[in-house]
Amino acid sequence: MGDLVNDLQRAGTKVTKATIRNTLRQQGLKSCSARRVPLLKPVHVRARLKFAREHLDDPEEDWENVIRHFLVTSQLLCRRPRYRVWRPQPGNITLRLSLMENTCRNVNHCWNGISERARAHLMDKSYAFPQLCPVEVQLGDNLLAFTDPMLEQYGINLVNVSKEEFDSCFTEQKQHLFAGYINGSLQVASKWLSPGVHYFAGTHEGSRHLCQLGLRFSVLVKEQLCQNSPRRHLCSGKGVCRAQTGQFAYGCQCLKPYSEPYCDAVDMCSGGPCQNGANCLSSHAAHPSQASYQCLCPSVFTGVNCSEILGQNNCIRRCRNGICLQVSPNSFHCECFDGFTGKSSISFSMPEPLTLQEIQCQNSTHVAGSKWHWYVPRCLRVRASTSSKVRNHHEVGGDWSWRNLRLSRDGERKRSSGEQLA
């Protein structure tokens, strides 16, 4: 929670932890802190290390049984923010190496919080478990590794491994990160933290059994792709440079009407001006006053935004609970009756719900077109009642709506359900 507040403040947004907590609660989410109770007690860790030390030379089949016995039954759900904002200055990221906590055993636990698309991509690949929660840093961050007292006393080092070695826990031990066993906090050299995914495993005297117990982790190093020149502001000052969990690089989230990748061009299509399923073509420009767009309308629509219908017959077929108004010699616009909304006047809305209230329709209003005539009922709301006339109307979820009103050429009002208007 504190990291999220700091990231937002660096981006120019001032919030408090209480604000974020209340927002999450309103959205049905929970703000969770890190696990305070270790998954394993120190006595259990000591027992595991003692067993490992005594059985280093056992056959592979015996160790497979040991691994199954030692797997933590109550695994950790790795928690992380969904987005991270790029920090102007590098930070210090600490990684605690332990068999007592931070251990996950499947994709859902290890990559909790990432998008469904990214998770599906991870599901398609083979990943080894158990492992420590994956680490994500931005390019230039300092990664500091330290061990819990039990592992420090046991003596471990870290080895840079390939993806295949990470999965199998088999390595030739040629790329140790440190000169000796980890004692205290040690910084991982920058040569191991280039952009991309890197894999590391814990080892003790060349043994891979710590790796099989879950002492292995991946680090995703993200670069930022938010400026086309080092002298330019991130996202041209018209957006936020951020990355999703599992995303390989930071990118711009632009304010409308500016467009990616650097928010330095105006995209008039970003606001969705084209209607009725039309395609939008934008002429990108540096300033909104210089930008323009064009809507490619489907066959029966026309107009600048494809909001007009070609031909009176097409309009009548599509315009329900409304009337067709002539805009040009060949185009018409569907004008909804009072209380109806939507592209074809299908949705019904009222300023407040009517619950078992009598609706009285009187003094029908005559609306005349060039060739067509309609009689539109003017409905008034009166006192609450349980009259049978009210029950004859169609009620949906406590609100009231008329059934589809069909308007005929001779002005007769009909209902598709056969009911009579009051």
Automatic annotation (TrEMBL):
<feature type="disulfide bond">
    <location>
        <begin position="297"/>
        <end position="306"/>
    </location>
</feature>
<keyword id="KW-1015">Disulfide bond</keyword>
<dbReference type="InterPro" id="IPR036397">
    <property type="entry name" value="RNaseH_sf"/>
</dbReference>
<feature type="domain" description="EGF-like">
    <location>
        <begin position="265"/>
        <end position="307"/>
    </location>
</feature>
<dbReference type="InterPro" id="IPR001881">
    <property type="entry name" value="EGF-like_Ca-bd_dom"/>
</dbReference>
<dbReference type="InterPro" id="IPR000742">
    <property type="entry name" value="EGF"/>
</dbReference>
<dbReference type="GO" id="GO:0015074">
    <property type="term" value="P:DNA integration"/>
</dbReference>
<dbReference type="Pfam" id="PF01498">
    <property type="entry name" value="HTH_Tnp_Tc3_2"/>
</dbReference>
<keyword id="KW-0245">EGF-like domain</keyword>
<keyword id="KW-0677">Repeat</keyword>
<dbReference type="GO" id="GO:0003677">
    <property type="term" value="F:DNA binding"/>
</dbReference>
<dbReference type="InterPro" id="IPR051022">
    <property type="entry name" value="Notch_Cell-Fate_Det"/>
</dbReference>
<dbReference type="GO" id="GO:0006313">
    <property type="term" value="P:DNA transposition"/>
</dbReference>
<feature type="domain" description="EGF-like">
    <location>
        <begin position="311"/>
        <end position="346"/>
    </location>
</feature>
<protein>
    <submittedName>
        <fullName>Protein eyes shut-like isoform X3</fullName>
    </submittedName>
</protein>
<dbReference type="GO" id="GO:0005509">
    <property type="term" value="F:calcium ion binding"/>
</dbReference>
<dbReference type="InterPro" id="IPR002492">
    <property type="entry name" value="Transposase_Tc1-like"/>
</dbReference>
